[in-house]
Amino acid sequence: MEWSETAGALGGPAVLGDEVTTGAAFVHRVEEGLPGKSLTLLKRFSGLSDADLTAVIPRRTLSNARKVSRLTPEQSDRVARTAGIAALAQRVFGDSAAARDWLLAPNPALSHEVPLRLLRTGSGGRVVEAVLLRIEHGIYE
What we know:
Elements: H1 3-9, H2 12-16, H3 23-32, H4 37-46, H5 50-53, H6 59-64, H7 73-93, H8 96-104, H9 115-118, H10 122-136
């Protein structure tokens, strides 16, 4: 997962700021708390609905995101993780609809777990990322 793809999925410099030019600067922005608007942009980029995203992001966060200027670092981490995996899935499958379908379907390579649900933790995100990278390199179909 490329930090720049993740940043792009969250609105890029227009939302995150012009100073986010490195992976370390992006991590710092996540630690500070992403703008509430980044969640709206994630939904637009990924095609995932609020109902879909509740697998990763609590419903209260989804409903309050428009009202807050900044998400908490924990909320921001989940949003960034989801955006990064959505961007990687779009790169692997070639479009947002195919990526969304893959993220929402039980997957045999993940013990029939739904990939999106595994994004609740960083460990789960790394497992999903590994499967996507294997697909990208032709190891899985």
